[in-house]
Amino acid sequence: MAPPPVAPAFLFAGALGAGAAITWLALRYARRRGLLDQPGERRSHSVATPRGGGLSIAIVMVAVLLAMGWWYPALRPVLQAGALGLVLVATVGWIDDHRPLSAKLRLMVHAIAAVLLAGAAWLSGYGPLVAAIAFVAVLVLVNVWNFMDGIDGLAASQAAIAGAGYALLAGAGSPAGLFALALAGACLGFLPFNFPRARIFMGDVGSGSLGQGLALLLVLAMAEGGDQVAPAGWPLLMLPLAAFLVDASLTLGRRILRREAWWEPHVQHAYQVWSRRLGRHAPVTVAYAFWSMAGMALMLVMNRTPGTFIIASAVTLGWCLVSGAGWLALQRTPQEGKGRTQYK
């Protein structure tokens, strides 16, 4: 792969600056339009707070993907499909931030974005495995990031850590590394407005866009990571995402088993239970960050250790089981909240 036409550090700095500037504009817009998330028993905040700040992250990612399409013609179909899917997911999220849309409509748009990315991966010759992972990753990560965007700084910090990990894994000068740096930079530009105390929330426009962006990043890391990414070790790519995947999956599974209306709003995720117990968001966000950074470190170490698909899968499964044990421990509280998931 040819050297990138722009220095990775410059791209990262540009994404960070643009993310901060557009978030500031989004904050002014939300205040002027009265676009506020109101507190309630199914929310984890106590003050009416503007939403929609994640528009900045979506804009930065789309701009970088369009530029990368010119830089890397061989990757253009996948990059353009990812950008188009991102626009679709961000648009339906932006509209939903202004007025609620039906769950079926949003899920349909997410499915279209998934088909676009999977189809582009298939037609580009990446094989059925990458195409299947692309389809599943879009549907899962778009919704998981929405499920888990419930306390100050959590969704953006987790995405930034995953982006940093994938950049280190694939190499900052690779296509996957460049996009990972842009994603991480946009998140870090947004974070000062959202942590340690949120002045603006990400909104569905941001959480959905991050899920789509991370799904595309998985495809790029698997298909275009070069020698830096061990082909047999692709399950290791799940390690930086494990905290979110485990919390969202176990909480949703429990609600389904209890025959609860799992699609309705709730506050039963482990991070929500923990933040209620502490009465603060920041310690929970920081703890999740340390856990995901540990998963990122394990991914990098294991990727450089000779192994097989079975070993990589066993390591990933073991990490998820440990994360699940943490979920169980955090759920042991006298009082449990009731429900918010993505499809509110």
Which strands sit side by side, in order, in the main sheet?
A: 1-2
Largest sheet: 2 strands, antiparallel
Supply Rg: 19 Å
Q: How much strand?
A: under 5%
Regarding quaternary structure, what we see is single chain
Helix proportion:
55-70%
- Number of extended strands: 2
The N- to C-terminal Cα distance equals 44 Å
Low-confidence stretches: 335-344
Mean pLDDT: 90
Q: Counting H and I runs of at least 4 residues, what is the number of helices?
A: 12
What best-fitting shape do the alpha-carbon axes yield?
A: globular
User: What structural class is derived from the secondary structure elements?
Assistant: mainly alpha
The secondary-structure element order is HEEHHHHHHHHHHH
Could you characterize what this model shows?
- The chain is mainly α and 344 residues long.
- 68% of the residues lie in helices and 1% in strands.
- It has helices at 8-33, 55-71, 76-98, 103-123, 127-147, 154-170, 175-190, 203-224, 242-257, 270-278, 282-303, 309-331; strands at 36-37, 49-50.
- The protein has a two-stranded antiparallel sheet with strand order 1-2.
- The protein is globular and about 50 Å long.
- The model is unreliable at 335-344 (pLDDT under 50).
